[in-house]
Specification:
Largest sheet: 7 strands, mixed
Distance between the termini: 55 Å
CATH class of the largest domain: Alpha Beta
Radius of gyration: 21 Å
Strand content: 15-25%
Helix content: 25-40%
Number of domains: 2
């Protein structure tokens, strides 16, 4: 069978199982099985697969059809134009989270000075590393409660050459950090228990997905603690889900001088930005 033939079969198979991206899934898995870039498949549509290659691909297709995420099957995921190793120990980097990183980079560039940044619940390290990559003057301290997740993050820190600017700690929320910060970022669990989720989402670590109090428990606890850990004019950027936006805003109103919501490309409420007292008479830039 040729590359084109197996891609069509796999795409049809995934489509019957309600995949959101059947053709893309088929291509990414085949490129992985053949040790090629996905782009190379278009130059080799007539290439015949060996029996060993077909066997490897069939196994990947079967696992994907059962709900295993493509990123776990191939072991990596692109985020902010960078490639990150992922395993079932960490959440798969989500394009929606790029809204948070883009705002963090914007704030770092506007500051015009080195910033000290915390990334709470770093998982794969994608937020911390991406901010450091695009903001050369910042220092980032990143934490996670999971030692397994931190092992993945350490691999990514090393792979991106960020060992001198991204430092990893193990602990709960702000507990492992010392000192104060100019910016604190967080993508914490915010899904309510019992939520109806796609199989590829459920396949990710429950500890990184679910939180009590309708999904808001960890986020509201962090927002309660943060004002005391921010430098004057410091800010927090936290990813949220629209279902907990009002709870997050209530928590921000109790301890911060102001806040705003950033929306993702689909128009959903995605990131809460909150700031402490401002050392000038000017309002934070929108």
């Amino acid at each position: 069978m040729t590359v084109l033939e197996v891609l069509k079969l796999a795409s049809d198979h995934f489509q019957k199982r309600a995949s959101d991206s059947p053709r893309l899934d088929a291509e990414v898995l085949l490129a992985h099985a053949l040790g090629l870039r996905r782009l190379d498949l278009y130059l080799k549509f007539d290439r015949s697969l060996t029996e060993d290659e077909l066997g490897t691909y069939r196994e990947l297709v079967a696992r994907r059809a059962k709900g295993e995420p493509v990123a776990y099957l191939v072991g990596h995921k692109e985020f902010m134009g960078l490639d990150f190793a992922v395993t079932p120990a960490v959440l798969i980097p989500n394009p929606d989270t790029e809204v948070l990183v883009q705002r963090a980079v914007e704030l770092a560039r506007e500051a015009g000075r080195p910033l000290r940044i915390a990334d709470v619940g770093t998982g794969s390290g994608c937020i911390a590393i991406a901010i450091a990559h695009y903001s050369p003057s910042v220092q980032v301290v990143a934490s996670d409660v999971s030692s397994d997740a931190l092992e993945v993050a350490a691999r990514n820190v090393a792979a991106h050459g960020m060992g001198d600017r991204v430092h990893l700690l193990c602990g709960d929320l702000m507990a492992p950090f010392t000192g104060s910060f100019d910016l604190v970022c967080a993508n914490l669990p915010y899904v309510a228990a019992g939520a109806d989720l796609a199989p590829e989402v459920v396949a990710q670590p429950a500890r990184a997905l679910f939180a009590e109090e309708h999904g808001s428990a960890l986020l509201t606890r962090l927002l309660h603690d943060l004002p005391a850990r921010l430098n004057p004019g410091g800010r927090a950027l936290t990813e949220i889900d629209p279902s907990i936006a009002s709870l997050a805003i209530d928590a921000a109103n109790r301890g911060f001088a102001g806040h705003r919501i950033h929306r993702d490309l689909a128009g959903h409420q995605r990131v809460l930005e909150a700031w402490s007292s401002i050392p000038t008479n000017s309002e934070p830039s929108a």
